Amino acid sequence: MKARIIITLKRGVLDPQGKAVKGALTNLGFDQVKDVRVGKVVDVELDGVEDRAQAQILVEDMCKKLLANPVIEDFSYTLEEG
Amino acid sequence: MKFGVVVFPGSNCDHDCHWAVSHVLGQGAEYVWYQDRDLTGLDCIILPGGFSYGDYLRAGALVRFSPVMGAVREFAENGGLVIGICNGFQILLEAGLLPGAMMRNKNLRFICEYIHIRVERTDTPFTCLLKEGEVLKIPIAHMDGNYFADETTLATLEANGQVVFRYCSPRGEVAEEYNPNGSLENIAGICNSEGNVLGMMPHPERCCEALLGSEDGKKIFQSIVYHLSGVGV
Q1: Are B124 and B193 within 8 A, CB to CB?
Q2: With an 8 Å Cβ cutoff, are A69 and B182 in contact?
Q3: Chain A: nearest CA to B149, how far in angstroms?
Q4: Catalytic residue at B94?
């Protein structure tokens, strides 16, 4: 089982990187860009996991304990078989 | 008395901290390897600056699980003095020994320069020889020093007087233009509610000798010694 975890800054937390990227995109002529938030992706390969339910529990635990900092970050994830 | 300077893989201010307390102040000091769990005989633990674990994931995030941090937590819970400087501050936040988190600097750049901080509290072990409102000239060197906490946490910090240092002008004026990194309320250093754990982004160990441009950092280490031994050094 593979998990793709996406970590983003919480809404309301200023994202200086996102702001800089938005500025650059605007300079390039992408006037349609309203806002940009930069986050990170962590791909985790799991082994010996029985089912999706167990994988969900594991991934959420990992995110809460280490991968995301709950003070400033939110996380979401998708699971993929194989 | 004896200081313990923790050495993580990637620490790079450990020798400066050791020098400041041993050579400049003439106190006992020893390095504590990050795999150690024994802090017996130590009076104050210094978590030095640097890039522990390469700042992987988030600055300070991976250190929390190193063996020495369990001992540091216990040491702090028993009232022992712990000072985290720069990366050491980031580690204290990630480990939950201090509230809040560090974000990338507002200007997205690594900032390495002398700045000024105002002393907000003088009743802590780290600032007992300083005067309230005193301005220290002290260097910063960081990429992630933009202090953030949610509104409730921030209000609690202010209500408890846990903000120990704020970025300011050379004359002590706290304003956004003297805020180098975007920290909320110009926060440069905070302590826990008990007052025995301090985190600060500026580097006192880098300004303990006139040759280095300022001796203001020495006052922080002198305060610690005075608090613990009642002796001025």
Answers
A1: no
A2: no
A3: 7
A4: no
Q: For strand B197-200 and strand A73-80, is the pairing parallel, antiparallel, or unpaired? A: unpaired
Give me the pLDDT at residue B80, please: 97
pLDDT at B168: 98
CA distance B204 to B200: 9
CATH code where residue A54 lies: 3.30.1280.10
The sheet carrying B135-142 orders its strands as: B28-33, B2-7, B44-47, B81-85, B197-200, B187-191, B163-168, B111-119, B135-142
Size of interface A-B (CB pairs under 8 A): 36
Give residue-wise pLDDT tens across range B95-138. 999 999 999 999 999 999 999 999 999 999 999 999 999 999 99
Average pLDDT score over residue span B215-225:
98
Rounded mean pLDDT of B180-207? 98
Domains of chain B plus CATH, in order, are 2-229 (3.40.50.880)
Candidates A69, A73, A74, A75, partner chain B, best to mutate (most B CBs within 10 A): A69
Give phi and psi for B18, each to the nearest 5. Answer: -60, -45
Residue-averaged pLDDT of chain B:
97
Q: In this predicted structure, what is the pLDDT of residue B231? A: 85
Number of domains observed in the structure of chain A? 1
Contacts of A80 (CB under 8 A, 6+ apart): A1, A2, A3, A4
Q: Can you tell me which residue has the tokens 């791909």?
A: A43
Q: Assess contact for B167 and B188: CB atoms under 8 A.
A: yes
Tens digit of pLDDT for each residue in B40-88?
999 999 999 999 999 999 999 999 999 999 999 999 999 999 999 999 9
Q: Which alpha helices (DSSP H) does chain B contain, by range? A: 14-19, 67-77, 87-94, 151-160, 218-229
pLDDT at A81 over 90: no
The residue segments making up the domain with residue A18 are: 2-80
